[in-house]
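We modelled the chain as a single entity of 1393 amino acids. Its sequence is:
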Amino acid sequence: MAKHRSGFAALYNKVLNFNVESLFARHPGPGAPRVVFFNQNLPDSYFDPKGKPKKEHVYPTNQVISSKYTIITFLPRNLLEQFRRIANIFFAFIAILQFFPEFSTISPGLVIIPILIVLSITAIKDGYEDVKRHQSDRHVNHSQARVLAGGDWVNPNMNGRKSRTFVRGIVPRRSLKRKDVEASPATKQDPDIEYDRADSMEEGEHHVFGHTGENVGPHWHKTRWEDIRVGDFVKIMDNEPIPADILICATSEEENVAFVETKNLDGETNLKSRNACPALTDLHTASDCVSKRNAFSVECDRPDTNMYRFNATVTRNEEKFPVDVQTVLLRGTVLRNTDWIIGVVLFTGVDSKIVMNSGGTPSKRSRVERQINPQVLINLALLAIMAVVCGIADSKIEGTKYSEGAPWLYGADESSDNPRINGLITWAFALITFQNIVPISLYISIEFVKTCQALFIYFDYDIFYAKKNQPTIARSYNLSDDLGQIEYIFSDKTGTLTQNSMVFRECSIAGTVYHGDPEEDEDFKKENSAEIVRDASNDSSYASTSARGDDPAVPSAADATIVKLSSGVLKHFRDERLSQDLARAVEAEPDSENAAQARSLNGFFSVLALCHTVLTAVDPATGAIEYKAQSPDEAALVQAAADAGFIFRGREKEKLLLQTPFSKETERYELLNILEFTSARKRMSVIVKKLDDQDGRLFLLTKGADNVIFERLKAGGDDLKRTTEAHLEDFANAGLRTLTLAYKVIQDDEYEAWSERYHEASTALDDREGKVEAVCDEMEHELRLLGATAIEDRLQDGVPETIADLKVAGIKIWVATGDKLETAIAIGRSTNLIAEESNIIIIRGSDHPVQQQMIQAVEEFFPDSGILDEHGIVTRAPKSPSTESASAFPMRRLSTGVRDIVGDNNGDRTGGFVLVIDGAALDHALHDDDHKALLLRLATQCEGVICCRVSPLQKALVVKMVKDGLGVMTLAIGDGANDVSMIQAADVGVGISGEEGLQAVNSSDYAIAQFRFLKKLLLVHGHWSYARNGTMIVNFFYKNIVCIGVLWWFQIYCGWSSAYVFEYTYLLFWNSFWTIAPVLGIGLFDRIVDADVLMAFPELYRYGRERTWFSITSFSIHMLDGVIQSVPIYFIITYTYFTTTSRSDGYSIALYEYSTTMVFAAVIAVSLFNGLNTNVWTAWVFFAIFIGIIILWLFTVIYDAISPGWIVTNVYGNNHYLFTSAYFWLSQPLVIAIAILPRYLYRAWQLGYAPGDLEILRYIRKTQPDIDMATLRSESLRSKPYASSRRRPSSHMSRTSIACSSVDNLSLDLRRTQDPRCASRTDMSTGIRSVHRGFDFATEEGGVAMRRMQTNLSERRQSSRNLPSLRQSSPKRSLRLFTSLRRKKSPTFKKED
């Protein structure tokens, strides 16, 4: 029996989870490896004997479609989706049944109209939604890119045909086919044609405008993205998106380097450097690309989803050259800081990596809709039982009465007319009689209500973004109630939580903290409006000093007088106190009291201005310097130094130019070495030599993580270390990203010896990276602390407050980002995801097994959770010493060299835990079911989870893991193409129309402009929609069960013949006119509480998370209520009328005379009962409650008065007996009161003796309508101090200028920082436990640009190994930084430190 039950359950689940899109989705399977040919014909092996290209050599188009339907698939796919509703199958069956004469009630044509209306309305809504998706797809597919054409150029590679989409099929548009474009000469005025400027080709420049010559030669033709084919040459200009996966042939920059922004793929804001394929760097012009002499082929591996792997080989002149991801630009990235690149298309459309990481558009159904199916099954089971009972009873009665000679059964012994056949017919007719137990109008009502709810969202001005004139749009109308049940939110970081812009907020210099002047919004906007516009345009066409410093037409950075805001930096750093200190420092005498502070200020900002890889550019229009950085972090640091007067004026090969307030002339430094930043080193250093006749010392300038710098500091100066450490904790607690700065002076002989060791390590064949790291570490010791910086990664408006309120609402928030771990943690802190007292657990993909890290985390932090017992991982026997040593790293404390930070029991904290896991660890965990289950259980023990370095596909897998593993409602929100798969995998997908394009919006269910709008979307619209829809549906079932109950009780008195007690018209209009308005009123106008109450008290959202408003329990209660209410309605009225006749003539009453009284009583009772279930009675609710009753009265009066001369009815003249009867007037109030009395008493008791939060707040609003709910909440929080202690700072962190030095308040800071209960950060892969102080620094690791700089430095070292300049220096020199404070005075060297 159990096997049969389990088999049925499996079959039911299979049917329930049937995926319609799987029938219509194309499953091409993994693509085959390909060879793409250029300027040569395809080999004969690419064709079959008939001369047609083989299927595996026909590549997909570049057309990307996120919509669901086409003209051909719309009807079958939409019908299949709609018939996933069990009720629709039932309605169709009943309609078909009534086509047979034995079961006909009214015209068969009229019977099928309701189901056709339901299907049509839903199909129109779905079609409209899909048309909007097609329009969005059209916007992307019709973007333009420059493609090689003319000059007898032919692309020999074979490409498939474009799909005829829904919009294309309806509105065909004439356009030239590709071969027509290539064959037909363009006119001279064709704006889509661009030529290269041949006369400037040697200078590496391009001209983008056509000239007056004949346009038949090689040129670039602007072509739609969807028409780009594999094997095309394309030319991409600065700030243009990449249309397909392309191989770089040549670029406008030195050494064919290009810079690309990848935040649309991996969420990282820093630019990545890419280089051209060495074999193709001579293809600088369209003529070069067309030339038959430049024939080559590219052999590619099969397309895959790995964003960080690309294997191909270029074959040219029988030589092979390797191709990897460093020479490829992927679709979805944007070209930056590079005038142009020329490339060849290798993968298009569905074969491109970003599209492969995105799934097909799913057919989503709301949870409420899915829950209706089992409830409909329950009602169908009741219907079947009722029909069987009627059939059996009718058959038995006919058999008994026929033998007794009942005259109405005369002749009932034929094959087509006998008790058995009649019982079967009665059974079928009973299905028709009681069909309203599953109301067809319910689905029409749901569609109508959800459409209106989508309009309510659209017209809500609170979630309208006036800056972009953008409302919140519901792209999927049927998911509004899901917004009120969200339990997990998965969010992207870049562009979703942050603005991709940095602000240098604060700094600590020699123990003094500078907070920066507070922002003046209006002045700030006016002053920086140009910079903000500049940032939005990202116009990077200015001259780079490294690339075009010798161009006389370009202004020199050395002569520029203005420094404008860099791209990605929001504002200048200004601090009045800092300006005063700098002014005093400039005038300070070397032996004065201010000399030490002067040296610290000079050294601090000199490190900021010199320790970086930033390039300078000059705006030819304004002559202003602009910094070009690979990451906005570096740009903000160098910008802050320039704001303080330390202006970096560019590079002249390896010479760095710096203007400082301490010198009238530009200082020059020779860059000797760059000890580059890596995630393992957590620091960056440069070694520079000051080029000065009086001062030619060597300096090591370093910036990095506080713990890494502090453990490398020179002994002594503990007071400064403690003060800086306290400031770092302040910065970190405010959610700022910190860096610690230090330096040291290098003796000449020390550098000589070290340089030899560094050269040997950098040229080693074995373990080069390890040896270089070891040599770098030798130099980076005995450092002197300068201070620390604090940068704000500017959040979107209201992000911290929104996340804090969503957490209060009980929603767990996971962040999934492609950014590195430190950046993800920093954003977690600034957005309230990680509280001040939260303990961070880090799991990395490393040599230490991921499963072992998770097991160790459970044992260390959650020993009583029982997770290991559940998974059978618990150690069943005591561990042997050998087992213990081999199993996991022991936890150990990390000392900064200042003091012990973390206690042994630091993990056992009341602050909760946040899990941070990287993509490599996720890859291991998600590919094994046991590991996945363990990860899920560990994650559920934590307050939040941050997934960093994850691919788009991993984002989707994480969402599915939580959704399927926990059975919870999930929401994913993002703004880029890398978020599409996550948005599609979640129950509800929200797209933000940000700077990263519209890919996320095109695939989303809801489109918003700002993350903060999510709060009202969920807490108000979602909660309202769920409460309204859930209450409406159960009341819908209730009102129909009342009607069915009355019909059922009548069967006792009609021989179970399935006859109607009502006149059929009343039954026909039951769901159309009499009782439809009250439930629609609930669905449209009911409010559990007002919007401001829901916003002020996010805790109320738990009613939605706990599925209060719609469940089997509430369904059963309302069904039982309906059955109970049908009893007095039927029996009291029946026995009232039949006890003594109500007629004055003494005749007995007719059936419709007393059954019409039942109709009135049932409609009024149902309407008032629905009113009792409505929380707010507005004018619209009053109208909805009473309009059905009024229509019933008018209809009865008019319908009963229609004479047979007009229409023959069964109730003509009923008014004469109905309204003159005292029974009619007296039974109405009595029956209605008895029917709704139980629910009324329950509601009265609930409000008076057991009120919930909602009832209390409604009462407060009723009695005190003017009270501000936000004030009420803040007062309640003040009465519970601990409740508000975990609230983090707001997104606009207001800073005020502090007149006194932070040293004055040092005692307070130190008491807090020395608290042994400080939250910890535990890296399970290494066993190191430390305190997080906000360190974060984003830059490309090992990129092409860095390798180029290192190569240049290495070549220079090779040519000057004897270092003559160093030996000419003075043997005795001060170890202080920049002792000469003013150039007008001779330097005074001091021996002491």
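As a brief sanity check on the tokenised model: The longest helix spans residues 1013-1051. The chain has 50 helices and 41 strands.
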